Amino acid sequence: MADLHTTNLCAEIISTHFGPLASKVASILLSRGRLTLPQLARFTSLKPRLVRNILLVLIQQNIVWHANSETDGSGEEVLEFNVDECLMRLHFGAFVYQAEELFGVAGGEIIQLVLDHGKLTSPRILQSLNAAATSFLPSEDKTPVVYSQALYKLVSLRYLKPSTVSSHISPRDKRIQYEAEEKAKISGFPTSKQLREAKETVDARLKMEEAEAEKIGLKRKAKSQLPSTKKRKASSTKEDDDTVVDETVYFRVNFDKFNIHTRNALIEKAVQERYNPGAALVVRAILKITEETQHSVADSRSDPLSVSNIILHLNSEEDEETLTSGLIQFSSHKSMSAGSCVKEYLGILSSADNPTPTGRAGAFLEFSSKGGGSGKVQVLFDVVARRLKRQVLEGVTRERHGLEGVRVVRLLMDTGKLDEKQISKNVMMPLKDVRPLLSALSASSLVSIIEVPKSADRNPTRMFYLWQVDIPKAFSHILNVLYKTLYNISARRQAEREDPTLVAVLNKRERSDVSVDVEGLLSQHEKEVLKAWEEKEQKLSILEGRVGESVFIVRELGRAVGSLED
Hints:
The protein has helices spanning 4-18, 20-32, 37-44, 48-60, 83-87, 92-117, 122-134, 144-156, 171-184, 192-214, 229-235, 255-274, 277-289, 307-313, 317-325, 338-349, 357-361, 381-415, 420-426, 431-443, 471-497, 500-510, 512-515, 518-521, 524-561, and strands at 64-68, 77-81, 120-121, 160-162, 218-220, 243-245, 250-253, 305-306, 365-369, 375-379, 448-453, 463-468. The protein is mainly alpha-helical. The longest helix is centred in the last third of the chain and has 38 residues, at 524-561. The protein is globular.
């Protein structure tokens, strides 16, 4: 079951995409947990046939899990709402834009079509796109060959992943089932070591299933379609040239692959804000080169990369100018080469001049330099994600409790547990000001108090009361607040669009006799109404983007690091 703010946001998303009846079914699943079809029909007061049709749509869109209940022995099918899949629908526009940037217009149309239908086979994708392309003027970027090539790239690079039977089952159910199977193999009372080994076996089994599922998207060509042996040797083609997209497999969008680009953009933005465009250019080159080997936002670091590869990637005159303009050169007679600039940036980004724990916590890269300046470079995704999460926490604290609250939160995160007297001494504030500030921070779930008893009777008068930052609790509260903000933005946008005056103006603008000359046939008042509405829409979109970025850092990057404490 989800909390109130998550339930409201998901219900609003479902209502926007599928209508109020589907939103009613989703709201019941979110508030009551997993249910059977008769229970859903009873709680929603809808006809079973209508509920069944709604569930078919939500299952097709990967929003609802379904499995057979084995707890009571009845084997009746139960349904559960997939919150993560629903919240990802807020980023569908960004996914289509990224696909267009990477694979052209054809790639964007394929991703948009799959997102609209949930999951599709390759013949259905190509048939729909080719039929839509023939209804318009012919274009070079909308031919059947272009669509086939774009589809193959999306599947081979894992932007589209197979939809299997196990993908419709909750991962928690599979984990519980596998753990029960492993525990059944243990005779007697299991020890902590055996339980840990069983959990590791389950993790390995789940990863193996995911790896096996990803292999079924492509198949080898038939022998009649393969080129001759001589031609294959002469052309030195790769093994991928002998594979085609499996026509029997249903494909869905792999959100993790698109989230990688969002994470990389955040890292590049953080580097530019801290240093300059030259440092951001070096990080962008590293991320671009290692892009194909990045499979998930849960990766702790990128693959090792040599300095020479980075220098070869930054070989244009514009890149050299950006690199040299970001460094102060002491010699005015001879300018630094691009290679020397790259090595200087790598030393700065890896905090080579500060080999302390504080310096390593503020680094973006790990640069293992060898003799002659060569070495391997890796991007520290986990370190950067931990720092971005901390910035979100400090930003929320600054907005609600000012700079004094940030000082207290930073102190507790750096030192650990302290009592109010120690906090007052370290932040240099009087005790009478620290106490109400700690109470306000505790009410916002940004800090928590723990009791350390002096004696076994746990008498409140004989206890130490220490303050700390409970990371999971703090970010859980922040995430709920962000969900509430997203819901309020959506509700405000819907309320603005339902204004009778605006509805009348929009309907008039869509009329065939007015759409020919909108500027000339609308009155001044109607133009002002449209302009005011467009400005509000723009402000709400900007705010939604900023809040969505914070949600991505807390949710997706938070899964990669677990918490800020190691």
